[in-house]
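#random but structural
TW: two for the price of one
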Amino acid sequence: MTNLGPASQAMVERIGLHLTVVDTGWPTASTIGWGSPLMLPVVVGFIVINIAMLLLKLTKTVNIDIFNYWIFLIMGSVVYAGTGNYWLSVGITFGIFILTPAGGGFNRTVFAKKL
């Protein structure tokens, strides 16, 4: 709590909050994800997986938003930190990535019927 500004510190004291965690937001999480040892093979794998899914007609979603790959990378980094197993982390990260365009296609189908 020593890094909070004076206004934040006054709010904590006035309201009587006892905060133990500070949410640093996406910039810190993004830095962790992009700085993880998973980054290179996972990002290349994402591109290959997305192209394969498009060619096999498993999705119509082109996931070219490379900026937001950090979301998948941070999840893989958490698995790696918890298990110490590099390849398990890569596999789980790929699995989560595959579910994203598949889920997007499912949502598109469900909501298109309701409109």
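TW: number two ↓
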Amino acid sequence: EFLEFGLLGFWSLEAFILPTAYFPSWVMRNYLIIPFQATFLILEMEYRLLYDLTFNYRMKSC
């Protein structure tokens, strides 16, 4: 849980802070933030799926 939060927090911060320094808001909103959010949503889903699979496997092997 902590690792997941740390990674997502770091990347989302980076995705929001860096573009605001260099791009006008409409560019940032249309071309940067939406792809970033979609990418990390997918990564988070995959991470949760892997975590569930390994957890279930460990529970069965006991």
